[in-house]
Amino acid sequence: MLNEEERKELEALVEHEKRNLLFYVLMHDRLVASGLLESEFESQINFHLDRLIDLLSKLKK
């Protein structure tokens, strides 16, 4: 069971990952135009999604 401080920290990290994902979605065209390969873009999205899933899983414990 998480204490209140751990829960708040995890919630903050969840929000951070949501903002990371939003950044990549909103900036997709600019990032690709500046030379980011589509595979690198997808890799970054997958990284942040995996991390978000992990954090949400920890919150539910």
Describe this structure in words.
The protein is an all-alpha fold and 61 residues long. 85% of the residues lie in helices and 0% in strands. It has helices spanning 4-26, 28-33, 38-60. The longest helix is centred in the first third of the chain and has 23 residues, at 4-26. It starts with a helix and ends with a helix. The mean pLDDT is 96.
Would you tell me the overall average pLDDT?
96
Q: In angstroms, what is the radius of gyration? A: 14 Å
Q: Kindly, what is the distance between the CA atoms of the first and last residues, rounded to a whole number of angstroms? A: 6 Å
| Overall form | elongated
Strand content: under 5%
Give the uncertain stretches in residue-range form. none
Q: What is the strand tally?
A: 0
Structure in a nutshell:
The chain is mainly α and 61 residues long.
